[in-house]
Every structure is written in structure tokens, then in C-alpha cells.
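Now read this:
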Amino acid sequence: MTTAPCDLPRRALPFPSRFFFFVETIPMQISIVCDSGYGHTAKPAQSVAQGVRSVAGAQARLAETVRRLQPA
């Protein structure tokens, strides 16, 4: 757990202006599930997973169902 000081104007608060925020990183696991026939849905799902992984403490799991569509 880390602390960060915060200075706010005294006139805006009825209590002392020096206090600490406690910041705790809580690990998260996020699942992204997509159904991809030709692969068009998989590409945005991979981008979402990459964005999730850029957040501290977040883990992304990409689950993809693959169905090959037969031409008509």
C-alpha cells in the first residue's frame, strides 16, 4: 500500500488540508470471450486484451471459440 500527500486549499475544506490518500492495487482478472468465424471479431478482442494488460494489476484472458464457416 502506498500513500500520496494531497494539498487542497484550506478555505475549501472544514478540516486540515494536509491528508493522505491510501492507494492499493487490487489484482483483477478479466476474461474476454469472442466467437470468431473469419477472424474479424478476434482482432478487436485482442486489442481489448492488450488495453486491459496496460492497467496495473489487471490480467486479461482471451478465450476464443473458433468455427470455420463453410462457403455457401
Summary: The first helix runs from residue 42 to 53. The chain has a mean pLDDT of 74.
